[in-house]
Each structure stands twice: as C-alpha cells, then as structure tokens.
Amino acid sequence: MSQYWSELTASLVPYVPGEQPKDQRYIKLNTNENPYPPSPKVIEAIQAATNADLRLYPDPTCEPLREVLAQYYGLTKEHVFVGNGSDEILAFAFPAFFSADRTILFPDITYTFYPVYAKLYGINYETIPTDEQFNIDARQYGIPNGGIIIPNPNAPTARFMLVDQLKTILEANRSQVVIVDEAYVDFGGESVVPLVAGYHNLLVVQTLSKSRSLAGLRVGMAVGHPDLIEGLNRIKNSFNSYTLDRLALAGAVAAIEDQAYFENTNRKVIATREWTIEALKPLGFQAIESKANFIFVTHPERSAPELFASLKSRGILVRYFNKPRIDQYLRVSIGTDEEMEAFVSAVKAIL
Ligand code: PMP
User: Fold this and answer.
1) How far is ligand 1, taken at its centre, from the CA of residue 86, in Å?
2) How close is the Cα of 105 to the center of ligand 1, in Å?
3) Which residue's CA is the closest to the ligand 1 atom numbered 1?
4) Which of 5, 9, 66, 216 is the most buried (most CB within 10 A)?
C-alpha cells in the first residue's frame, strides 16, 4: 500500500475490466463489443469534425446530441443527459440520487461496477437474491430502501425482465430513484423509456457501446424527468462540465441518425446469438435465455475455468468470473457468424 494514499483509496477494491489483449489474433468474445464496425456515417462525421475547431472547447451542454436523442425517444432534450459511456453516467447518478445514510438495492448477481460505485461514495447496499436460474423477482424490491439499480437485461447473466415486472418495482418505490441500466436492451429486450412520462423517479441509462458499435467512442445517455437530469447536471458540472469531446459528439449524432444501419446489425447479432445457443445445446451446454449481445452458458460435466483456458489456448477469448454462484459459467459475447462457428468448433474439439 502506498504511504501517500488516502484511507479511501486504500479501502477501494476497484472494478476490473475485461482483458483487451495486444495480440490481435484472438477471436475476442470477452467484453461484449459489437463485432460489426460503426455506421460509415459515423466515421464520416468524425472525419468532418477533425478540423481546426478542435482548438475550441466542445458544447458543454451537448445540445445537438441531446436534440437527436430527444427526437429518438419522443421526449424533449430536458429529459436527456449524455456522458462518456454509461459508466460515467452511473458514476454521476450514484452521488446525485443515493445518500450515504439510506441503503440501496440491486441484484446479488449483477454488473460489478455497482458495488464499486457504492463503496466509492460511501453508500450502503443490500443485494437481493436472484433464483437458481438468475431470475429477478420484482416483489422482493418492496422493502424499505434508498434507491434501486437494475440492469435489464442483466449482466453477466443475460436474464431480462418484462416491463410489467419493472413497473411493479417502480410502483412500490415512488419516493426514491430507480435506475434501469439498459446497456443491452437493443438486442431484443423491452425498454422502459415509455414509462419515463409516468414515473418521475425513473432514470433509464443506455449506451452507444454495444448496439451502435461505439465502445471506443465512450458515449452513454440517460433519460428521465427533467428534475433527475438536473441532478445529473449538478454532479457533472461539479466535476467536468465538458464531458463529451467534439469528435464523440459528432460521431454520436451520426450514429443515432443512422437507424437503418443500427437495426440491421442488431438483427444480425440476434440471429447469430440464437443459432449459437442451438449449436451449444446438443454439446450439453445449458444457456440462460438471452436478450443481450452475449450468452451465459454452463456445462454440467466440464469446469468453466478449464473451458476458459482451453478456449484461450485456441485463440478464443471469453469471460470467466471467479465468483460464488457463477464460477461454472462462461459469458460469451456474440461475434460474427464466422467467429461463432470458430467458437463452436473449438468447444467441440475440447469436449
Ligand atoms: N452497464 C452494464 C450492465 C454493462 O455491462 C456495461 C459494459 N461494461 C456498462 C453499463 C458500461 O458501458 P459503457 O460505459 O461502455 O457505456
């Protein structure tokens, strides 16, 4: 431990992101990136924005992007917030809406950044158990709490909740903020954005990282009642009022505007996901039903860490979590058809 660290730094157990190997030869199915490139219109827009104006600060309100997102969601720009990836928005949302003296709730198996943020901001949390198949039971979220965060679909399980189940949670928790993290919703899930008008305590967080193939651009968005957006702005402007840079702003606008490209790539990812699950079943794998761009699979006879290592030695990188309850599962991002064929062939060779 460094003698210069604060007590806070010394106490933190930070989030560990998935490996980004230097060796480009890996078939990379470990961090839920989209296997397809971003829309060509995004590249054009970033190239066009690569000019002398880079000497100027960007628009601190990110207005052009919030305008196109507002149109996309059928709301006004006062309902929209944008940040450097949804991770940054979540990092703003925790101190904006959750207080140190009130316990927040999230599922026991979920995105591991949530406990990291809670600890960073000194917010107590309680985890709500999912069942054996990682289902989230909305009725368990009716206990007293200081806020709730739920990813839908969940990560890393891929389990999804229906809008009605999320409504049950919102109904039981009208006086505190409920954040629904929809990082993976575009791969067949159902968004709760239409509930924003009726539930002023609902903040929906989405990202361009997955369904718009822009993990490298770092753009996320949040949709909620203007009071919630104002809360996020207060934290943002107390931290880094510029958030998105000029290139990210230009690329993000083009990404939202190219709806046809987005729908086409998502359709391909969904189709690949479905045949991959079907191909794994006769090999003895069990997969959690997925509406995400990844699958969560287990084999009753083969240990997950061994499968992970064998796949890696064959040049295929998937994700393994050495954690209670999920240590016999692999999370496999959906690649192109060719990549998933290589994955299935490698699994067959290993079994
Ligand atoms: N939420 C969930 C559930 C995720 O899995 C991820 C991706 N790791 C994120 C948010 C963050 O994505 P990004 O910061 O790239 O928008």
Assistant:
1) 6
2) 18
3) 183
4) 66
Q: Which of 33, 81, 86 to mutate to test the pocket of ligand 1 (most atoms within 8 A of CB)?
A: 86
Q: Decide: 136 and 150 in contact? Cβ < 8 Å.
A: yes
Question: Tokens standing for 201?
Answer: 């305590």
β-strand 104-107 against 125-128: which pairing, if any?
parallel
Backbone angles phi, psi at 81, to 5 degrees: -130, 145
User: Residue written as tokens 């079907």?
Assistant: 278
Strands (E), 46-196: 80-83, 104-107, 125-128, 148-151, 178-181
Report yes or no: 195 and 202 within 8 Å, Cβ to Cβ: yes
> pTM, whole model, 2 decimals?
0.98
Those residues whose C-beta lies under 8 Å from the C-beta of residue 314, and which sit 6 or more positions away, are 346, 349, 350
Residues 157-213 have pLDDT tens digits of 999 999 999 999 999 999 999 999 999 999 999 999 999 999 999 999 999 999 999
